[in-house]
Amino acid sequence: MPKPTQEGIDHSNRFITEEKNYNRDKLREDHDEWVNKMTSEQKGIYDEIIGAVLENSGGVFFVYGFGGTGKTFMWKTLSAAVRMRGLISVNVASSGIASLLLEGGRTAHSRFGIPIHPDDFTTCHIVPNSDLANMLKEASLIIWDEAPMMSRYCFESLDRSLNDVIGNVDGKPFGGKVVVFGGDFRQVLPVIHGAGRAEIVLAALNSSYLWEHCKVLTLTKNMRLMANDLDKDEAEKIKEFSDWLLAVGDGRVSEPNDGEVLIDIPEDLLIKDVNDPIEAIIKAVYGELDLLQPNNDPKFFQERAILCPRNSDVNTINDIMLEKLNGKNYVLIL
After folding, report:
1. Of the four, 165, 187, 214, 276, which is 20 to 30 A from 331 by CA?
2. Where do the structural domains in the chain lie, given as residue ranges?
């Protein structure tokens, strides 16, 4: 058999090619539109971060804001501002679902090769002079969404790896790259099996040595309340629910308190007067149970979900739901 020739083979860095494979004209058009929609505090944060990118001065920022303040909108606009200039913006998130909201997003573990069990001494699986290492060297901005839910050792492992790969001699964190974290510490913190409050707090990002290098930029305005298509009653309900969530997250419920209180759930969020709670919540989310058989609308299940705090609840509800669907069950054995 004849040997294949090298002609036509692309020897370029696939990571760099992937990160630069964007329509710059379309990005510029979208970017200009999004910048005009920014609030004053969003524009201030945008100017500071993009200024650090263009000046190549490095810096670590944490964009802190509760749900609805426009963090994802910020990531989209920042990425467009970098990519329309032909530069690289690496977008990652702590979970797969959150990464889907980012243009070109990946999970942090996938993109950086973070060890499954990181500690004080681990580094990421980034081989010096590899395609991934060279892409990270060339990157102008790293955006990491939902950062508070990751262990601080993940960020420290990336810091050690970038300093090693880039050859940082200035002592700047992350090899002198501009890194933007985002999230809300009121939400899910690192999940550690069998850990108590102290262990979880000590594993959070703001317990890391990197936190002293972070400049915290705060978003406070609820963008969902500023939508033009909301009527007065709907806007009032969203505001009331948002304020209640913030009060719970800030520990302002049933003040004065010592940090442990009973939280009264608003009446409109409760499902009452039921004999079987699981059947009741399925009915509340999916409607009458006989509507499940059959339902040919592909968006019917995509637009509905039941979130559970424990895996045992997930398994119970999944078993009940599968029993109500027509067709055969298939078990995938890995």
Report:
1. 276
2. 14-223, 227-269, 271-334
Q: Spell out the per-residue pLDDT of the chain, length 334, in tens.
A: 787 765 655 558 889 999 999 999 999 999 999 999 999 999 999 999 999 999 999 999 999 998 888 999 999 999 999 999 999 999 999 988 888 889 999 999 999 999 999 999 999 999 989 999 999 999 999 999 999 999 999 999 999 999 999 886 678 899 999 999 999 998 888 988 888 889 999 999 999 999 999 999 999 888 877 766 677 888 888 888 888 888 888 888 877 877 788 888 888 888 877 888 888 888 888 877 555 555 667 778 778 888 888 889 999 998 888 887 777 777 777 6
Look up the pTM and report it.
Answer: 0.81
From the list 150, 243, 132, the residue with the least C-alpha distance to 203 is 150
Tell me the longest C-alpha to C-alpha distance in the chain.
Answer: 82
CB distance 222 to 239 below 8 Å? yes
How far are the Cα atoms of 22, 130, 263, 280 from residue 270, in angstroms, in the given order?
A: 46, 54, 13, 11
List the structure tokens of 34. Answer: 């999004």
Q: Angle 167-171-176 (CA atoms, 0-180°, nearest 5)?
A: 65
Report the CATH superfamily, name and number, of domain 14-223.
P-loop containing nucleotide triphosphate hydrolases (3.40.50.300)
